[in-house]
Amino acid sequence: MFNHIIFIKIVHNNYVYDNFILTEDYLKPSVEVYLIHKTHTVNKVEISADGILVHYFLRELRYGSYYRRGFIEKYFKKYWNGAIVQVILLPVNKEIIDYKWNYRMDYLVRERCELEHTLSWLSTLGGAFSALGDYFVNCAETAGKISLNQLKLAVRLNDPNIVSRCRLYLSLSLIQRRRFKLARSIVYNEYVVAKNSSIVDFRLINMCRGIWCKLKYDYELFKREKCVY
Fold first, then answer.
1. Are 211 and 171 in contact (CB under 8 A)?
2. Dihedrals φ, ψ of 19, to 5°?
3. 3-state secondary structure (DSSP) of residue 113
4. Percent residues over pLDDT 70 in the chain
């Protein structure tokens, strides 16, 4: 039943990192080593090697059909009832620098730094236009455009709190342009999301409440102006 089936177990300090099933046709991950080991008497072989050698060893077994069959025939042909190979990981003499991964991480770090830097000066610029937006409609429109650009960067940063704040900045611009219904919808939705979040950000909640107060105040002023005219 277990002819030429070898179970490979990768171990370090009694911790099992991975299990594999090896046959002449394939090498694939497995969780069945312990089940078969308990119900059948199989031969056990121990091999000590560092992680680098084990990596390339498993790679050859997975992709090299001639290497895989030759390995089984040379070392495990006599074990017709199956075998368990326990590979004990040893510390490597010299660490290998993964240059490709390093270049990738370097790119991601630099990209995030640039995004955060751009987000910072957009926030400063948007705040200035937003302050003037109460008196000049064109400044309110510019502040809204800046908020949309901030929102794009926040989505790229994948930070939900910054995304919510950018939407609230946009709602301020909408209030200044007297688009109260859309602003109300944005502020209400962000408040509900902030309240029901697994990690509650009280600053974001207070920000929603502050903008809600401004919304009510500006709407009251708008209604009075309509009554006057």
1. yes
2. -130, 145
3. helix
4. 91
Task: Enumerate domains of the chain plus CATH numbers.
Answer: 6-90 (no CATH), 99-228 (1.25.40)
What 3-state class would DSSP assign to 201? Answer: coil
pTM of the shown model: 0.58
Query: pLDDT tens, 23-61?
Result: 888 888 876 544 444 455 567 888 899 988 998 999 999
- Render pLDDT for 200-224 as a digit per residue (tens, 0 to 9): 889 999 999 999 999 999 999 888 8
Q: What are the Cα distances from residue 123, in Å, to 82, 87, 132, 136?
A: 66, 55, 14, 19
Largest CA distance in the chain: 101
Instruction: Give the dihedral sign, CA 203/204/210/213.
Output: negative
Q: Which residues face 28 on adjacent strands?
A: 21
Backbone angles phi, psi at 22, to 5 degrees: -120, 125
